[in-house]
Amino acid sequence: MLGLVTQTSVYHWSIEGDSEPVKMFDRTANLANNQIINYRCDPFAKWLVLIGIAPGAPERPQLVKGNMQLFSINQQRSQALEAHAASFAQFKVPGNDYPSVLISFATKTLNAGQITSKLHIIDLGAQPRKPSFTKKQADLFFPPDFADDFPVAMQISQKYNLIYVITKLGLLFVYDMETATAVYRNRISPDPIFLTAEASSLGGLYAVNRRGQVLLATVNEQTIVPFVSGQLNNLELAVNLAKRGNLPGAEQLVVQRFQELFAQTKYKESAELAAESPQGILRTPDTVAKFQSVPVQAGQTPPLLQYFGILLTRGNLNAFESLELSRLVVNQNKKNLLENWLAEDKLEYSEELGDLVKTVDNDLALKIYIKARAIPKVVAAFAERR
């Protein structure tokens, strides 16, 4: 899909087939005589944003003014705002099965001689009776030498949930999307930046400067978590970054937090932390043993089953987890659950799992042996059938 911006309107033109351009919306008055520098569409193609810049106020013309038009396709309605850069992202709010659509935009305005620079993050589609993202904002701190600098682009890393704000004079601001916490600021180019693009697989961005250089900026996976926990002294953000990006550097913090939650008998929170632990550092036999050791209260779900249930909602179980969960359901004569999980590829096949299942179902055990490539057991199982 191509986006075409004219002096008065915006069109979408499919690159497939021979269809004509389709008009999406008319430009709002705040974008008249603006230089258009960006146009974006949200991941679900329900929201559009157009960004333009214009000369600044007479008392400070060098501080360029930014204007934004946000358009809802469903509502067929526009909103005019002041902003130099914007981008959309998806965000999964805990307790809500459906991802929220967020817009983040950066502003730098002059009011009564005072410059205000802000980053805003807003949920565009709060769902009835569902948890929604709480609006966030933060200051953009420009060094004294960059008083007239302004944002020209924004990219959001879904891999790390980080917001990158890039300025005309080559400054890069990095913010955490969930909390709007400032993570990093540095100059990445001595030459003006005029174009950026997302580097989605790397969790960063590409930028092109006036000299013609193509720059790549992304996270140093080995150092960002220790930097946030040490230099920024933000342990909670360090743990969250490690969990969402599966990054090293927070192992001690995660284990410590798990032990604290477990000691407070917050087994659900403990299970969630273990399930999301970076690089699976808590998904061990020791963790299973801890949940097994908790006395089961009458009428309550055993903490071990809570743990396995959370793991299953997050993805697949490893070999040890698969064996222990299967042992539980076999002992409870709930073979149908086992069959369902195997059909959904939720369990890891192993010879040990086949041996366990063989006590209740030879045919199902044979399937497991075949998947686990336990050849001697496969041969023996076929021999028993004769």
From TrEMBL:
It holds the Pfam family Clathrin_H_link. One of its GO terms (molecular function) is clathrin light chain binding. GO terms for cellular component: chloroplast; clathrin coat of coated pit; clathrin coat of trans-Golgi network vesicle; clathrin complex; plasmodesma. GO terms for biological process: intracellular protein transport; receptor-mediated endocytosis. Signal peptide: none annotated. It comes from the Eukaryota. Residues 221-244 form the Clathrin heavy chain linker core motif domain. InterPro entries: ARM-type_fold, Clathrin_H-chain_linker_core, Clathrin_H-chain_N. This is Clathrin heavy chain linker core motif domain-containing protein. It comes from Quercus rubra (Northern red oak).
